[in-house]
């Protein structure tokens, strides 16, 4: 939450150099139109107030938004009609607009983008607990420590909730590099010199005694062998459910994993959802039931959802880390984070350009998110308005307002994500 708050603050950096943006051809009043210029002639005025009116859609592919390659150019290339440029100059700077320092404004714009991108990343990587020491921003490879932690348990045991709590909103890199079909990254915690990767172990079907089903054997064989690769294995179970209705497959799994110490892997048993157990004495009864299993080095009673006992678990795991380079770049954003950032950036532009009161009544949705093989991103977002009058304001004359929001947001997203972004914004009526 804290990170999200920071994210809002970060995106609220006032766009000091909008004037620089306005001088760019793609931001000229004429070109702000969400309706591509070449389609003007075919524009059907009877559609203008309907949901699918073409001017209610901004599609960045129809605008000359600079590509990644064009960021290196030193001189501004205004390649647009001089008439419109001088009109814009006069509008913004008055008659004596000659000699405006474009370069200065470009630098200012670049500076603002860098500040925004840095703030977003810092907010996203912020530690969840207030009292935790802040993570090092750069750690030399020789100082890095890492740990691979597998989490195994029945569906609904609380694997994801526990990981989310430990990793917080700063879920860092969940790259395809680490994901495989047999183990999937649940989250990555990078704190100080230590990076801990949490892996899920999907596909591990158990039969009554805690062994894989025979018919699934081939499929799960590699999953089981990958379990061996983790430095630490967390066996997690829902202690509340266990007290009410013990599942023989879960008991089988706990016993199997704790049967004998593993030569290379530390195993710990986590009794999860302790917050749901009213009589805490019952927890001791369960602990008693599993206490003689030599394979477990430690036992933890936790609530992955509420956080009880999680700090001790995190501390224990951090202490187990090996001097080993990190597997993942802690500065990489995951998809969820990128989606939130895309919404924040567009919303910020909306607040900039539309009267303050209107945006609060407007529903703003991410409707499509696609990452293509070439690394580019297609993002489609819709604004759903309650009244035709709201829609009209948001669309602007010939789509000028939504176009302007779209162009600016597209630029900003491209700069933050460092990839080509194809942004589509649509204004609809409820
Ligand atoms: N009260 C309480 N609920 C929890 C706790 N941990 C998880 N839950 C809830 O239990 C449900 C399952 O949690 P998940 O974290 O999705 O479980 P999972 O093991 O990842 O489930 P699968 O993805 O099906 O394997 C969710 O509704 C959680 O909110 C906890 O400590 N206390």
Q: Could you characterize what this model shows?
A:
It is a single chain. A hairpin with a 2-residue loop joins β3 and β4. The protein is elongated, with a radius of gyration of 27 Å. With 430 residues, it is α/β, with parallel strands linked by helices. It is built from 14 helices and eleven strands. α11 runs antiparallel to α14. Helix content is 37%, strand content 17%. The N terminus is likely disordered. It folds into two domains: 169 residues, GMP Synthetase, Chain A, domain 3 (2-Layer Sandwich), CATH 3.30.300; 183 residues, Rossmann fold (3-Layer(aba) Sandwich), CATH 3.40.50. The strands form two sheets. Strands 2, 3, 4, 5, 6, 7 and 8 form a seven-stranded mixed sheet that branches. The site of guanosine-5'-triphosphate has 16 residues, from α5.
Task: State the main characteristics.
430 residues; alpha/beta; GMP Synthetase, Chain A, domain 3; 2 domains; 7-stranded mixed sheet; 14 helices; 37% helix; disordered N terminus; binds guanosine-5'-triphosphate
What's the count of strands? Answer: 11
- The CATH topology name of the largest domain reads Rossmann fold
Beta content comes to 15-25%
CATH architecture of the largest domain: 3-Layer(aba) Sandwich
Oligomer: single chain
Overall geometry comes to elongated
> In terms of per-residue confidence, which ranges show pLDDT below 50 for 5 or more consecutive residues?
1-50, 68-80, 93-101, 125-136, 169-183
Structural class: alpha/beta
Radius of gyration: 27 Å
Largest sheet features: 7 strands, mixed
Number of domains: 2
Elements, N to C (H/E): HHEHHEHEEHEHHEHEHEHHEEHHE
CATH class descriptor of the largest domain: Alpha Beta
The end-to-end span amounts to: 30 Å
CATH superfamily of the largest domain: P-loop containing nucleotide triphosphate hydrolases
Number of helices: 14
What small ligands are held by the chains? guanosine-5'-triphosphate
Average the pLDDT over all residues and give the rounded result. 71
Query: What is the percent of helical residues?
Result: 25-40%
């Amino acid at each position: 939450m804290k990170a999200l708050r920071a994210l809002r603050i970060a995106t609220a950096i006032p766009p000091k150099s909008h004037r620089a943006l306005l001088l760019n051809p793609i931001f000229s009043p004429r070109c702000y139109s969400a309706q591509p210029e070449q389609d003007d002639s075919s524009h059907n005025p009877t559609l203008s107030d309907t949901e699918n009116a073409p001017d209610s859609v901004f599609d960045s592919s129809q605008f000359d938004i600079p590509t990644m390659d064009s960021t290196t150019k030193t001189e501004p290339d205004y390649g647009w009609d001089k008439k419109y440029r001088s009109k814009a100059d006069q509008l913004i700077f008055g008659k004596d607009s000659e000699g405006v320092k474009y370069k200065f404004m470009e630098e200012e714009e670049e500076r603002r983008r860098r500040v925004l991108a840095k703030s977003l990343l810092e907010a996203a990587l912020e530690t969840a607990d207030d009292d935790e020491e802040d993570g090092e921003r750069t750690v030399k490879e020789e100082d890095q420590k890492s740990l691979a932690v597998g989490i195994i348990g029945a569906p609904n045991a609380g694997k994801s909730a526990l990981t989310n709590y430990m990793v917080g909103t700063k879920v860092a890199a969940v790259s395809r590099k680490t994901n495989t079909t047999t183990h999937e990254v649940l989250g990555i915690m990078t704190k100080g010199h230590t990076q801990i990767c949490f892996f899920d172990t999907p596909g591990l079907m158990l039969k009554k005694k805690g062994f894989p089903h025979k018919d699934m054997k081939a499929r799960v064989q590699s999953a089981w062998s990958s379990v061996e690769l983790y430095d630490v294995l967390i066996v997690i179970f829902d202690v509340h459910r266990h007290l009410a209705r013990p599942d023989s497959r879960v008991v089988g799994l706990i016993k199997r994993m704790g049967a004998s110490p593993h030569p290379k892997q530390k195993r710990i048993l986590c009794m999860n959802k302790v917050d749901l157990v009213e009589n805490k004495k019952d927890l001791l009864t369960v602990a008693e039931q599993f206490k003689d299993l030599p394979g477990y080095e430690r036992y933890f009673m936790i609530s992955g959802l509420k956080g009880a006992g999680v700090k001790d678990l995190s501390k224990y795991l951090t202490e187990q880390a090996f001097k080993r380079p990190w597997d993942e770049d802690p500065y990489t954003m995951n998809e969820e984070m990128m989606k939130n950032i895309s919404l924040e950036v567009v919303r910020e532009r909306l607040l900039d350009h539309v009267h303050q009161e209107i945006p609060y009544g407007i529903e703003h949705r991410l409707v499509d998110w696609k990452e293509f093989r070439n690394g580019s991103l297609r993002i489609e977002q819709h604004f759903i308005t309650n009244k035709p009058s709201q829609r009209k304001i948001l669309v602007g004359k010939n789509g000028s307002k939504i176009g302007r929001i779209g162009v600016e947001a597209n630029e900003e997203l491209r700069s933050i994500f460092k990839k080509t972004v194809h942004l589509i914004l649509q204004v609809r009526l409820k």
